[in-house]
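Table S2 (text version). Query chain:
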Amino acid sequence: MVAGGSLVRKDVPPYTKAGREPLSYEGVNSIGLRRRGYTTEKISEIQEIYRILYLRGHNNSKAISIIEKEMEPTRERDEIVSFIRDSDRGVMKGYISRS
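Corresponding structure-token output:
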């Protein structure tokens, strides 16, 4: 999900919310996932993937390596990892603090 009026220059990974300028990670679209029948456990798994990718300060290559090493293979994990790897434009940045 992308906030209205956002300029999208990079790819937005699946299951996420994006906004601001420059476009950045705003969290997992947990409401949309619940509406589509995802379990609390599956949503937590997706959130953990994005914590590793966006909140721990790793570059994408390192984050993908950690995700593959530490998390069991699932359809959602593999979809996210493939999306990041296959992105031609690159993916949006992590959360940017506005202090």
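Notes on Table S2: The chain has one domain: 16-86. DSSP finds four helices and two strands in the chain.
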